[in-house]
Amino acid sequence: MRNRIASLALAAGLAASSLFAGIAAAAQPLVEAAWLKANLGKPGLVVIDLRSGGGATREDYQKEHIPGAVFSDYAKDGWREKINNVEGMLPPPEKVERVIGALGIDNTSHVVIVPMGRQALDMGAATRLYWTFKVMGHDEVSILDGGWVGWTRELGADKKPVNPIASGGVSPQARTFKANLRSDMLIDADGVQKAMARGVILVDNRPNDFYVGATQAPVADAPGTIPGAKNVPESWITGNNGGTFRTKALLSSLYRQAGVDVNAEQISFCNTGHWASLGWFAASEIVGNKKTLMYDGSMAEWTKDPKRPIQQTIKLN
Fold this sequence. Notes:
This protein is an alpha/beta fold. The protein folds into 2 domains: 25-153, Oxidized Rhodanese, domain 1 (3-Layer(aba) Sandwich), CATH 3.40.250; 187-302, Rhodanese-like domain (Oxidized Rhodanese, domain 1, 3-Layer(aba) Sandwich). It has helices at residues 2-25, 33-39, 58-63, 93-101, 120-135, 147-153, 189-197, 208-212, 248-257, 275-286, 298-302; strands spanning 30-31, 45-49, 70-71, 81-83, 86-89, 110-114, 141-144, 201-204, 230-231, 266-269, 292-294. The strands form 3 sheets. It has a 5-stranded parallel beta sheet, with helices on both faces. The chain is globular. The chain starts with a helix and ends in a 15-residue tail after the last helix.
């Protein structure tokens, strides 16, 4: 009897390990709604409701959300902070560890980030968090392609979404998350200047009006772009500026159209590292160019020093 109990315990342990391994193995950059639906509730899976990046509130989340998903406020929960008078920067690892752990995430969790999915702008909240997890050394992270809009798009005969929706809130049990900082993924203004001197391609992922200097972001001290940068607007990254990412082939074609060698070393930037995270995600995670970096400080940091060069195609004054 004792041997039978031991055998059953071993079998259960192996089954659980196999189940978790199956989830971990599926930690691709993008997952589809069907995959998430099939894996909801499985051990090790943590779904982050990040619709706040698209204007949703905690009350919206409590009204309806993907079953088991935990809510996080993109702007208020500590994912980004003001450092050296530069807005939207990556906080120190110990702070990010607390933010992640408070969501019930540890180093074994497979995280799936669910943005609103209406446009590229709110998909940028997901790519920014995805980049943050990668910088913190956590590879088991994915984004739900299509976001919440995609999750609720398919309706049944009763005109209700076929994918499950829950109400109320989920209070996660805090866990310990330990960062393993990948400093090689980070680059500051001095690093950008050195890269420029080596001929590294700079990719401005802002809308064209920012790129040419017709529009100036409030966080930037001057209009225009970093000299020599190519423009791949954030709206190019998703289909029709919506919530679904373009394919590798189409993104490669669009990058070439912008004069960017998709296989070359490159640095993505924007105003504060939000739109740039879309560019980094497209180049690094979809196209597969691991020689891509994201300049976190972007124009908010670059323009703080008047000695740094600015290229302004259109001068309004």
